[in-house]
Amino acid sequence: MDRPDTSTVGLVAVSVPAESSVSGTGFSFGLPTEVSTMVTEQPTAVDVTLQSGEPLPNWLKFDRSTAKFTSSAVPDGAFPITVMMKIGGQQVAIVISERTN
């Protein structure tokens, strides 16, 4: 698959188990291979913010070296949340929601 050009905006949708919002349970997820490769190979900064441009909330962390998001204590009403990643000239929106099955 070709890499997206600088005008491409990607979308990744993630649903985490409902139990994730219980304090101490949390979640962890990696990005799709194409996105994680872009993150780990990008020589410049990778910006990860909320859709509004604000920093990630304290309960949500992104580890660039592993290209994974983690949380150990999700507050009530936190989902859905949209995170924006700027990787070089490319943007990826990551929508995290709670699984309801």
SS elements, strand count = 7
Q: What's the Cα radius of gyration?
A: 14 Å
| CATH homologous group name | Immunoglobulins
Secondary-structure class: mainly beta
Strand arrangement in the largest pleated sheet: 1-7-6-3
What percent of residues are in strands? Answer: 35-45%
Give the mean pLDDT: 79
Elements, N to C (H/E) = EEHEEEEE
The tally of domains stands at: 1
Task: Name the shape in a single word.
Answer: globular
How many helices?
Answer: 1
Short structural description:
The chain is mainly beta and 101 residues long.
Describe the structure.
The protein is mainly beta. The chain has one domain: Immunoglobulins (Immunoglobulin-like, Sandwich), CATH 2.60.40.10. 9% of the residues lie in helices and 40% in strands. It has one helix and seven strands, in the order ββαβββββ. A four-stranded mixed sheet has the order 1-7-6-3, with helices on one face. Strand 6 and strand 7 form a beta hairpin. The radius of gyration is 14 Å and the shape is globular.
